[in-house]
Amino acid sequence: MTSEASQLLRVTDLRDPVLSDVQRHTLAYAEANPVELSVESVLAAARHETGLDDFGPDDFHERLALQLDEIDADPHRSAVARLVTFGNSVRYAVNRLRVMDLLRRHPEIHDVEIAAPVVVVGLPRSGTTHLVNLLAADKRFRSLPLWESQEPVPRPEDEMDTDGPDPRIARSQRRWDHMKASSPVLAAMHPMNPDHIHEELELECLDFSSYNFEWASTMAPRWRDYYLAHDQRPHYEFLATMLKVLQWQRGPNRWILKCPQHLEQLGPLMETFPDATVVMTHRDPVSVVQSAATMSAYGARANFKRVDVDAIFDYWADRVARLLEAGTRDLPRIPAGRRVDVFFHEFMADDIGTVERIYARIGIDFTEEARASVAEHLERHPRGADGQVVYDLRADFGREPDELRARFAPYLEMFPVKVEVQ
Fold first, then answer.
1. Average pLDDT over residues 271-299
2. Residue 256 phi, psi dihedral angles, 5° rounding
3. What is the pLDDT of residues 362-387, one digit of tens each?
4. Do residues 309 and 399 make contact, with C-beta atoms less than 8 angstroms apart?
5. CA pair distance 130, 369, nearest whole angstrom
6. Which one of 2, 115, 389, 401 is CB 3.0 to 4.6 Å from 421, fit for a cystine?
7. For residue 82, how many other CB atoms are within 10 A of its CB?
8. 325: exposed, middle or buried (Cβ count in 10 Å: 0-12, 13-18, 19+)
9. d(Cα 358, Cα 375) in Å, to the nearest integer?
10. 2-414 belongs to which CATH class?
11. What's the predicted TM-score (pTM) here?
12. How far is residue 268's CA from residue 411's CA, in Å, rounded to a whole number?
């Protein structure tokens, strides 16, 4: 990796990674601390950590087993991939136990109403993250900061100390500090600071169903096929319950949500939240694939013993194509007048103006206070604060933009995005 004075980052070792000292230390630690990837070991660890044993409906066992086996059965996966998969799975199981315990003690949570959420939908790497963070700057909305998504229900010891900052924020900060140290390019591509507004798919992970496992694992074809073959409505209902849990703990009560997965799940999304307004981002799919593949290929140095850059590129080019195919097919699922289209190049040129236009479309007054909050967020979290990655489709992947772009012709005919990669 090379770095310039302007904080431009260029990854030059995708095909033959050169590990940093932190990455080598992490790998050595993982190799010295092997884990068992089984449903039994994950659930036992979660029970031990919480002292709880009611996970609710056990249909998630099948999904968890598949996710664990996809990593366990792959001889090319690294010890880090195994350790991270185990750790994430235990965290989700721990959170699930605490949620089920809270719902048992407070059944009135099920009566909470999730009313008229605003849902940002679009391809990954298409501006959805920046947009949801700007909208969430207006505190009239309820949003999901990363620290809360990582631990949606406080630990019992956290609830005893109500005078200081929520201890979950400090734990999230430690994770962010480790990420910046171990994977600085990933940190530049996708900020994960504690107050960063996160995707609600993190909440679906407690039901062990979402496309998040593909990102966390670099690529997961067995899980992808299983996930796409199964009706996701039950898991969107689980998501709605999770939003009720969070809203019951603290308000306000109108949600700003965001997840690229919704692009291929517009049916379940709109059935679960029938009064939602969808804000849909649009960007040159070639630029999206270039960015997503670079991010995944860089992260693969931790997940694989040998990085197959071409396989990673093909996986995410196919994944973007599937997302666009499903999204364009299911556009009629969004009721007339409840979709706002946002084009990436216009958004990047005038982000506050874009937010103002969205407010006008959804019938909310963009007050001076709201405008000031958005401007303050931009000042506190400038784009590229941790560096800006420079991409090169030809040099890194040996692909031609026009050949790749032809694959997305139906979408491009429908939405005239600006071509970014020539």
1. 96
2. -110, 115
3. 999 999 999 999 999 999 888 777 77
4. no
5. 19
6. 401
7. 22
8. middle
9. 16
10. alpha beta
11. 0.95
12. 21
